Amino acid sequence: MSYDYNSSRNRLKLPEYGRNIQKMVEFLMTVEDRDKRNKLAYAVISVMGNMNPHLRDISDFKHKLWDHLSIMSEFKLDIDSPYKKPEPKVFNEKPKSIGYKANEIKYKHYGRTLEILIDAASKYPEGEEKEQLIKVIANHMKKSYLTWNREVVNDGEIFKDLRELSGGKLSIGEDIKLNDTREILSKNKRKRITRKK
Known about the structure:
Distance between the termini: 44 Å
Order of helices and strands: HHHHHHHH
Radius of gyration: 30 Å
């Protein structure tokens, strides 16, 4: 007895439409009469659209379906499409690389976002709001430190890192008390336990 497994079949061009739609497209390519082929292509597009009703709100929904029909036929289907036939090279070319900032993160456990926050805070006008902002940032630094290091850290270490990351522009009074280490660690532990459930 012979079994027909998906692993032994031809690979689907667009798996989201399934094997039956792929078979319809393959059948379309065998139809010799152009008018009949065009009518059947509209029928296949209709079925494809019914499979994805949530995409109908997209402005170029129909255009996308016709492009997908071309892709599934490996751009060989000769029909009168209401849209310009896509070029195969456009779909085969590699995407352009995304230019990431080349600058290094000084302390990876704090992350790039915290560095951006510190930079923004250093430009903030002097006053009580800035002091509160610095305290919030310092508490977040402590939380980030404990999340990744799981070691006890004293507030003085956080204050030193804050001064260093801000280029000496931000400092916090040594008398300021940050959130308790045990409290932060217990919150982190509770988060890990709830994620496992």
